[in-house]
Amino acid sequence: MYIRALFISTALVLSSPTLVTAGDDFDGFKQKQINLPKSYKKLKGVEGIDAKYVHSFSIYGGECRSAKYTDNSGKSDCDHGSVRSELREKKSGKSFYSAFPQPTPVWYGFDILIPKSYPTLGQQKSAFNIFAQWKSENCPHTAVAHWTRPGHENALFLVTYKSVVGSKNHECDVVATKKIASMPSIKGKWTRVEMFVNWSEGRDGVFDVYINGAKKLSHRGPNLDPNNINEAGKRSNKNYFSFGTYLANSRGSGMIRSGTVYYANVHRSKKRVDLFR
User: Fold this and answer.
1) CA 209, CA 219: separation in Å to the nearest integer?
2) What spatial distance separates the first Cα and last Cα of the chain, rounded to whole Å?
């Protein structure tokens, strides 16, 4: 793994345009405006993975983004002890903050490298680390995440949510939490993640997760936030995809340990076979 990390550190760093093409079914991605400064890089010539380029996302302590959220809450990542480096899905022909749904049923796939040196449970201060999420107006509909807080299992989880009605502080209730894989089993090597999803607020919701080709999780039930309400108080279909690393609700940015994660071959498709492009 450390040899592979060396290859990554010496790879060619491409210019980082705001729009990043990530796959045929995704129109593109943009860096979130509340990302940590200079935390995202697009790398080419990375050995150890068959990919045209690799996305590199870093978090570090001692700094947070004080830019206010767009929900008129007056809050920022600094208020929550949060730091992030993510790419957010962009829809062609729509403004960056427009509401749009995901196609369904649908497949998602990406390769991820979480280095052994990346701080997780027992290494990072108490926090919640999101690696991929599908976001409603307020909360994630569903997220792929890891708790670094003592008392939690050292694993990667699928977490579904619903927004707390009337909350102006990004309050989210967890609906379901299911283990995908242990962190030691995936850290330090490239891991292939594929997901088949039927988006629904009801019992017909499906979220299957495959790790390196093997099915690890089969979730049945709601995977959409039933309280997806916009600022006008109306029902919203917003469900955009983000990936990277988002460390939320720590005890303060000054206590955060630095780390970098890598992604490649990010695709969405109606057919699993088309994830391999």
Assistant:
1) 8
2) 25
The range of the structural domain enclosing residue 91 comes to 2-275
- Tell me the whole-structure pTM to 2 decimals: 0.91
The larger pLDDT score, comparing residue 166 to residue 262, is at: 262
User: Letter for the amino acid at 225?
Assistant: D
pLDDT-wise least confident of 24-28, 36-40, 103-107 = 24-28
CATH number for the domain spanning 225: value is 2.60.120.200
CA-closest candidate to residue 156, choices 174, 190, 188, 132 = 132
Q: Which of 4-8, 82-86, 271-275 has the lowest mean pLDDT?
A: 4-8
> Which residue stretches of 81-234 are H helix?
183-186
Instruction: Give residue 36's identity as a one-letter amino acid code.
Output: L
Number of domains in the chain: 1
Q: Which residues contact 248 (CB under 8 A, 6 or more apart)?
A: 80, 81, 82, 84, 127, 128, 129, 130
Closest CA to 188 of 96, 121, 118: 118
What DSSP letter does each residue of 94-131 carry, written as one string?
A: S-TT------SSEEEEEEEE--TTS--TTTSPS-EEEE
Between CA 199 and CA 51 the distance in angstroms is: 29
The separation between CA 247 and the C-alpha centre of its own chain, rounded to angstroms, equals 10
**Per the structure block, which two tokens stand in for 231?**
């600022």
